[in-house]
Every structure is written in structure tokens, then in C-alpha cells.
Amino acid sequence: MAVTDTPARIRAAFAEAGVTGWLHALDIDSGAQLAAGADQLVCTASVHKLCLLVTLHQLAATGALDLGEHIECPSAGRTPGPTGLAAMLDPVRMSVRDVAYLMMAVSDNAAADLLLGRVGLDAVNRTTQRLGLTGTHAVHTFGELFATIRADAGPGGARALTDPHVITRLRALDPARTNHSTPRDMTRLLGAVWRDEACTPEHGAAIRRILGLQVWPHRMASGFPFDDVHVAGKTGSLPTVRNEVGVVEYPDGGRYAVAVFTRTAHTAATLPAADAVIGTAARIAVDALRAP
């Protein structure tokens, strides 16, 4: 299948799954790429935690931050979420390095905001600017993001998020008013991490390790069900939004950065087809890049 035919196949897969999707795939070593809406501005959701992770390691590489430094997470005032520190009830004291692990492996919102409290949003934006990610910007912390959702949902609370009319007024789903990027920016970031251009080799290896420990297999990894193919990545979710960016590594040394961002008109929290098409689209793209 020619690469020129592939974007149409990807768009057809998105349509069959009931989503609107945007994708960019990059051969990290050759520079070959494949685009299907790659420059669309998109809501990153928790994918933006990757930018924070890179920022932490850049600061550590310069001596401005000690990853072994311990920070306190009190029981009160934590950013909400279903995993990690966000779901715990008692005070916790952990190293910056281990908090970053929770932020990435289980997408812990409280962990992310602890780290943002340590380094600041401006540091994250300086990192993305320095790496040439011109379409990428962090507008608010994760706690602030969820506060906009609560405010925009109104008195109906979480139940109101099943109403399509409420969904249309959520600032968190408007890329112009929330944390945002493009698929091409995200593969550029991943490529820089895998080529040790974003950080020193020591810190690049640490970032790659953490990305490889993500626990969610139902999106990008579902497209590569092979014991000898490794997928390292970061998901992101909001009402009607399902994203993942990651790197697919083959035993022959091939390395492919893929970014997939999707929206659906369905407000249900559980949509297996919408999750699975991220893996399907990534596999179509990588197969095309690997084709002779």
C-alpha cells in the first residue's frame, strides 16, 4: 500500500469508529513521515504531562532541580482524579522522580500538579518553545482545567457532561482556550527524546523508561499485539476526547513516533471502538512507513 493512499485509510478508520481524528507519524531515524491533519490544533488533555516530564529532566540536567528531592503531598487540596496520589487519602512524601512516574504511568493528576507547583507553567512553555514546538502551549494546571469543566457544566455537575449542549460550552475542549498542541509537534517532541536531543542521554533514557511503564494497553498499544514490539506513550482523556502519543519500536531497530488525537460526538465515557481506533490508525501509519 503506497504511503499516499494511507491518509485516506486512516480517515476511513476514524469514521468507522465514529470519531474525528488527526494523526502524524514519523520515522525517527529516516525522517519519513505521514500526516492526516497533522497541523490541527488539538486539546492535549493529559498528553501535556509529557511536556512537563521533559521539562523536569531538562532542569535536572542543568542542576536546577534534584529529581531525588522529596516533596510533600498533603491529604487536603489535591487535584481530583481516579489514580495515584489523586485517589489516595493520607499525606504522602515522595521524590520528584517517583511523583513523575505516577504522573506518567497512571496519569495521576495530583502528581502532575505537585510537579507544576515545583517548576511552574512558564518553565513548561519555555521547554516547548526551545524545542520549536510552535503549536504547543500550556494554559493552566490540571486542577485549573477541571475547575473550568465544573464551572462550565453548571449546577448539573458531572451528570451534565452527558448532555451534548453542555459539551459544546466546555472551555477545556476548545484548543484556543486550553492546553494545546498539534500531532506534528508531539512527534517532533518524541523524536527529540528518542534521539537524545531534548535532554542529555542520561535524562533521555530516564524519560523513555517512564513512558514505557504506562499501564494503559487499550489505545495505541492495541494496534501492536506482539511480544517483540514495544510501545511507550502517554494517553490523554476529557469528555469526548481520546488521545495518545507514543513511540513504537520494532526488533529490527525501527522507531516510529505516532501522535493520534480524536473527538467524538458521543458523550459516553466508555467507547471501546473510539479507544481501539487509536491503535488501528497508528498501525496503518507505521505499516506504511515500514513498507519497502
TrEMBL record:
Residues 23-262 form the Beta-lactamase class A catalytic domain. The keyword Hydrolase applies. InterPro entries: Beta-lactam/transpept-like (IPR012338), Beta-lactam_cat (IPR045155), Beta-lactam_class-A (IPR000871). It comes from the Bacteria. Keywords: Hydrolase. The keyword Hydrolase applies. GO terms for molecular function: hydrolase activity. This is Serine hydrolase. It comes from Streptomyces siderophoricus.
